[in-house]
Amino acid sequence: MSKLFKFVSFMLLAMLFLTACNGGSDDSAAADDEENGEDPETTTETIGDGEIELVFWEFGNTGYDRLIEEYVEENPNITINLQNSDMNDVHDNLFTSVSAGSGAPDIAMVEEAQIERYRNAEDAFNNLYDLGAESVVDNYLDWVFQNGESADGDFLFGLPTDIGPTVMFYRTDVFEEAGFDSSPEAVSELIETWEDYEAVAREINDETGKLMTDAGELVFNARRDQATQQYFDEDDELIIDEHPQIREAYDYVANLFEDELVGDIPLWTPEWFAGMEEGTYATMLAPAWMQGQIKDNSPEEGIWSITTMPEGAGNWGGSYLTVPEESEHPEEAYAFIEWLTAPEQQLEAFLGYGLFPSSPQVYEMPEFMDYEDDYFGGIATAQVFSEAAQQVIPVYKGRLYYPVDEELKQAIDNMSAGDDPDDEWEAALQRIEGILRR
Amino acid sequence: MEATKKNSWLTENRRSAIAAYLFISPFFILFAIFGLFPMLFSFYLSFFRWDGLDPMTFNGLDNFRFIFSDPIFYSSIQNTFIIGLLGTLPQIVVSLLIAFALNSSLIRFRNTFRTLIFLPYITSIVAVAIIFGLVFNNQPFGFANYILSLFDGGPIRWAAEYWPVKFAIATMVFWRWVGYNTIIFLAGMQSIPRELYEAAKIDGASIGQQLRLITLPMLKRIVMFVVFTATIGSLQLFTEPLIFLGRGLREEGITVVAYLWRDAFVYNTFGTASAAAIVLFVIIITLTAINLALSNLIGRSKRRVS
Q: Does the keyword Repeat apply (chain A) (predicted)?
């Protein structure tokens, strides 16, 4: 009898370890946001058997392993050791290695807003201009490429992989239930401004009892990403108080909460992912890279669709590939990232995992323009995204972008529970000032 | 001549002393590299302003001035103590009772239970985060809120309100460490001679009396050890608040170590992080001294009795 129990407890243990190993694999997409700091898992994959091994730190669901297989086939002297971790872990570990001067990989993926953290560490990275990046400048959108440069433009930290133009994902079934035409054109026309968005939210709520979105945070993010100036100006001065756009975004969300038109489920939680399939809300305002998450969590085709965001698109996320100074094979590492971010490969990354290309040449490719996604009701998703991408105005984010964002999210969370928006705004500003005074 | 001189210096005693030092040296070498150096360096850092990349600049006591003017730092100290008390006191009592039960001959499948009680300790922290995230969920469909709703209790925002946050984190601490302490108590109990219990039984002692009059006095040293490690462990509490609250680490649940971690690795202000570490160091030293004094007192009174 006790043998049986030992066996059962052993199986329980084995299961626990297995869940532990799987924990990291279904992490969020290319520009995953906060809240995943708890995930210590790293998956390592060694591809190829060449003499030169390049260690590559990445985060999110990039699908790069398949592209790397292609690359090592053409370059048999290269082996690539692909290590995927949580987004925050990759940046924290890279920061520690850069600060300590050892431990950095040959290639590190850096998120768009986080690149500011490394700006002062030019000597810890290879200047990609020295390695030949001059010849590929025209491959990328200007504003994306410039964000990878130093202020004077002499130093290039990284080559851009993808960008995150924001769109409105919506559920056709909820729109139909509320009596609306659910085609992308009709919805785009129906919701042209944020006032329309609120009005439609009210109508959907009256007709069906459903919410406009389950995470009010996303509405804030959407308006934040449309703002021409966000938290800091180019001199790293905090401008959220004198500059009205962020406050307007905040008040807009406060208003939606007050009328109970949006939910307060935190992003990246299991319940948030599960909600994508439930059909309890109508829209999700999110960047291109979110489509992988939606497809994974709500597998049924033809339910979700995509249209333009009210009042134009913003950009949320996107990444760069850098070559730390420590790399023993900077030329090989550079050759690889130049290949990986070339238009042909960016096209494949889009078709595979929805990473929206940072290379405008891809936008002209017939495979890209004609790509119709059956999942989203057979619409040409690439065109919706490229329309959004062309509206993006580059914004300076600053080194403390995420900490400031985190404090505002806390304020939003508190007011979703009924706290006074003005008090919470003041409290968040005070906390932010505390961070800046350090 | 030379040889004999050398030999006369390398006496038998010296030789074994050198051997002994060599044998214990790995610990001291590792401690110097991974323990002492970082400690001294953070003392040094606490007087500088450093973002991890640029050169450090000396700023005297500014870091200390900052953290002592930061209300969140005081909250973090308060939280650490409240969560520590909520998490460890019941835990020690409960693990003592569980250990007593597992040690008694009344229970079947003892080995199975011993394995099961230890499971939480080795469970992946990711799994813990997910489970507790669902149990203590802010939404009405969270498990704890569902149970409350059966008793007409309104939904509680477990991850945001003052006491619920502390209660939730303390529960995680309790759940994760109760098995560990049980095993330590159990090991201590197994070294208590069975004859004592048998004699007590013959004298008609109840189970409660056995626990109070035999087990507890014989376990004094083990209890002291557990209280000691649990105190230090709860002052260094970090993983649970981080996985429960995320990187935002709300003021309601942030602990001192979480505070200094956030300063160092989220805000990249290593100076204030080091200053907070020094304050924590002083708190731990003080509590350890009190602990030691108390245990000396208990030890002496015991000798006087015998």
A: no
